Amino acid sequence: MNSSIYIPERFKRAIILHIVKNLMESNLYHGSLILGIHGPSGYGKTYQCECVLKELGAELFLISGGQLESGTAGEPAQIVRQAYINASRCIEQGKSKVAVVLINDIDTGLGNWGDKVQYTINRQTVFGELMHIVDYPTMVEGRSTRRIPIIITGNDFTKLYEPLVRPGRMTAFEWDPTNDEKTKILHGIYPELQIHECEKLIDELNKEISCENFNFLSIAFFSYLRSTLIDGLLTKSIEEVGVTQAIDRIGEGREPIIHLTIRLQDIVESGKNLIHSGKLVNHLRGF
Asked: CB of 140 within 8 A of CB of 84?
């Protein structure tokens, strides 16, 4: 795992415990087949899952929420079923000791968001498929399978089919990091700063959000802020040699070398400008 990436221990612990319990043979430890990680947008639920699973050496079978809707009836349910079966085969064939099915942003594809969203047959079949897998995890599509832990991420699980997310089928883990966790995550994004400077950065920019009617600033905001700083340096690099020359150099394998040497006050000022610019979309603003 990249040393600059900080994954809070309780986030790691939730995933590790879920995987280990589902690997154990004793029914005493199995618990739920699904771990549901939910919470505000912009705090890296899926990304952090992928980092932890990579660190564990787990084989990941990823399904996007957008794949759970299709013009072909039954296709999304088949995608879920096949991912589970493929994960089982991965273990059986000795390709990996651990395999996980990860469905990210599940509520975007399956959520009931009111009258403006049509409830389709595919939602019913996907929920039905997941219910079957959860209730019979070692017998899918008429064949014997390994018990494969499933992780789902989303913002609002109250929009999902209630029997699927009840205790016993799913273990819910709310991810809304504490101030200390946010600071440590931010330190990974801005390694140029000291930890106390990261605390100050959060405090200074939080003072700016009330006048813009924000609820909070997400981690995604601070990542985006860093990207805008790098964009400024990259723009200067391009202007120095010209666009054509810059493209030619990249084609030859000579990419621009960007050294981000910034002070806390520079980041704070850029952050204030970004907050008041009107360029932020909801997941950055914290809605």
From this structure: yes
Closest CA to 225 of 287, 262, 269, 270: 270
How far is the C-alpha of 171 from the C-alpha of 151, rounded, in Å? Answer: 10
- Looking at per-residue confidence, does 24 or 279 come out higher? 24
Q: What pLDDT, in 10s, does the model give residues 74-89?
A: 788 899 999 999 999 9
Max CA separation in the chain (angstroms):
66
Question: What pTM value is reported for the model?
Answer: 0.85
Domain boundary among 128, 159, 174: 174
Note whether residue 109 is domain-resident.
yes
Q: Is pLDDT of 36 > 90?
A: yes
Mark whether 80 and 132 lie in a shared domain: yes
Instruction: Please indicate, yes or no, whether residues 192 and 162 belong to a single structural domain of this protein.
Output: no
Domain that holds residue 270: 179-285
Distance of CA 123 to the CA centre of its chain: 22
Grouping H, G, I as helix, E, B as strand and the rest as coil, residue 163 is helix
Question: Which sign, positive or negative, has the C-alpha torsion 47, 50, 52, 54?
Answer: negative
Instruction: Check whether 282 has a pLDDT greater than 60.
Output: no
208 plus 166 within the same structural domain? no
Contact status, residue 226 vs residue 214, Cβ threshold 8 Å: no
Same domain for 170 and 183? no
**How many structural domains compose the chain?**
2
Q: Is residue 161 part of a domain?
A: yes
250 sits in which H/E element: helix 243-251
Q: Strand 143-144 relative to strand 139-140: parallel, antiparallel, unpaired?
A: antiparallel
What is the per-residue DSSP string for 75-138? HHHHHHHHHHHHHHHHHHTTS-S-EEEEEETHHHHH----TTS---HHHHHHHHHHHHHHHSTT
Q: pLDDT tens digits for 108-158?
A: 766 555 555 555 667 788 888 999 999 999 999 889 999 999 999 998 888
